[in-house]
Specification:
Number of helices of chain A: 2
Shape of chain B: elongated
Strand content of chain B: under 5%
Distance between the termini of chain A: 90 Å
Helix content of chain A: 25-40%
Structural class of chain B: mainly alpha
Strand order of the largest sheet of chain B: 1-2
Number of helices of chain B: 19
Largest interface: A-B, 28 and 47 residues
Oligomer: heterodimer
Order of helices and strands of chain B: HHHHHHHHHHHHHHHHHHEEH
CATH architecture of the domain at 105-201 in chain B: Alpha Horseshoe
Shape of chain A: flat
Strand content of chain A: under 5%
CATH topology of the domain at 105-201 in chain B: Serine Threonine Protein Phosphatase 5, Tetratricopeptide repeat
Distance between the termini of chain B: 143 Å
Number of strands of chain B: 2
Amino acid sequence: MTKYCVFTLLFFGLNLSFAQERVVEKYVKRQRVDLGNMEIEGEVLTPGDLSIQGDKRKRFRMKLYDRENFKYEIRNDVLNLR
Amino acid sequence: MKTYLIFILCITLNLTGFSKDEKKPVKKKEQKAKSSSKLFYKKAVKHYRNKNYNLSLYFLFSLIKKNNGVSKKENKLLTRLLGQTGTLPLYLYDPELLEQINNPYISLHLANHYFKKKDYKKSMAYASSVPDSNKFYPEARLIIGSTLQLKGDPQFKTYLKQCIKSAHKKSGGAFAKKFKLYYDLIRENCQINYARELYGKDKYARSNAIYTDIPKTAFSWPYLLLEKAWNYYQLKDYNRSLGLLMTYESPLLASYFLPEAEILKALNYYNLCLYNDTAILIEKFFKVYKKRSLNLRSYVKKHKDAEFYFNFIDRKLNSKLDNSYVKSLKNQLKKKLKVNLHYGSYKKTRKEYKRLKAKGASKRDLEFLEFTMKKMRERIGRHVQEYFYYFINQINFVASEMFNIRLEVISRKKDLLYNDKTLVAKRARGGLENVNRDTDEYFFTFQGAFWADELGDYSFGLKSNCKEVDKNNKE
C-alpha cells in the first residue's frame, strides 16, 4: 500500500512540476519602424582642450538601382506582337 | 491433258480471285479517303464563300491532318482564310500539325510560339522562312533581330536594318490606315532596339539621338520617355531627365503610370543632393501609390479566372471601375498591337457565330464556334491578367528600391551632421543657366499647363546642391 502511495505521490508531483515549466513565450509578429520623419537634427559640441582625434569613419554606401540594359523590354516587345 | 487443263484453270481462277480479294479493300479505302478529302475541301470552300472563316479553317485543318500534308490549292485557301481570321485561331491547333505546313502566316505564328518558349533556334528558323515579298517580312526580321540581340550576337544589326527598310517601304505602299500604322509600329520597334543596344554599351548620347528620331505621335512614344530619361540620367543631366519624367504628369499621358519612373525621379533628386525633394517623392509613393497597388492586388486575387479579364478589353466593366490603376492599365493595353489584333479576330468570330445562329446552323457548328470563342477570350484575358501581375510586381520592386534610397538619404544626412557640415542651400532652386541643351533639342518654360507640342521637351533648371559647407561658417 505504501508503495502505491509513494508512486501516486511521485506521479502527481512530476505532473505538477511539468505543468509549472510550461511557459509560453509570445513574440511580436511584426515590428513597424517609421522612417517617415527623416529630419535629423543635432549639435556636435566643440571639444575641450583635451580631445582625441578619432579614426576617419568608414562610409558604407548602398548600391542604388541602376538600369544596365533594356533586354526585358526587347523580349517583351516581341511577346506583344501576337 | 484434261487434268492439266483443269489444273491451269483452277490456278488462274484462284489467282484472279485472290487478286480481286486483295485489291478490293485497298481500292475501297482509297476511294473512301479520296471522297472524304474531297468532302472536307468542298465544305471548307463552301464555308469560305459564306464567310464562315473559322468553320472553313476547321475543315481545312481536318483535311491537312488526314492527309499529313497540304496541297498547293489547299495552301492558297489557307492563306486567304488566315488573312480574314488573323493568327489567333491558330492557337487552337497543335503546333506539330502546323509545322507540316509551309505558309508565311503559320511560320510567323510558330516563330512567335517558339520565341515565347525561349526555343530561339526554332523561332529564328520559322521567321527566316517568311519571304521578303510577304507582308509579314518586317515583323519576321524584327523577331530574328531581337533574338540575336538577346543572345548578344552582333549580326542583329543586319536584321534590324532589313526590318526598318522593308517596313518603311511597305508603309509607303499601304492603302489602309491600319496597315500603315502596323508597319510604322514595327519600324519604330526596330529603331528602338538599336537605341537600347547603344544604351547597354554606355553610348547614351547616340542612343538619345535615335530616340529623338521617333515621332511624338508614335504608339510607343510614351514608353520611350522613360528610356530616354535613363539616358539623360546616365549622362548626369538630371534636369533633363526630370523634365522628361514630368511629362507623365500631363493629362494627355495620365493613363501611362510607369512605376519605374518614380525611382528615376527619386534618383535624380538624390543625385542633385535635394534630399528634401527626394523625401517628399518617396513619401508620396508610399502614401498614394502603394495603397492603390494593394487595392489592385486584392482585386486581382479576387478574380482568378482569365476570362474575367477579357471583359476589360470588351468594354463591359467600364462602369464598375473605381481603381485608377485598373483604368490606366486598361487604357495602356488597348493600345497594344497584340490586343488589337486578337480582339479584332474575336469580334469577327463572334459575328460569324451570331450570323450562323440566326440562320439556324447545326448544333455541332455552333458548339465549335462557342468553343473557339471561349478559347479566344481566355487567351486575351490571360494576357491582360499577366499585365496586371507584372504591374503589381513592378510596384513591389519600386517600393523596395525607394526604401533603399530613403535609407541612403538618412545616411547622407547623418554624415553631414557628424562632420559638422551642411549643404550649400536648404532648398536650392535654379534657373535657365542650369539647363543643358543640344542644337537639336527644344526647351520650353513650364507656364502651369502642358501643351501637346511641348511634351517630351521639358527640362528642370535645378541647381545641384551637393556642395558641403561648414555649419558654423554658414551661420
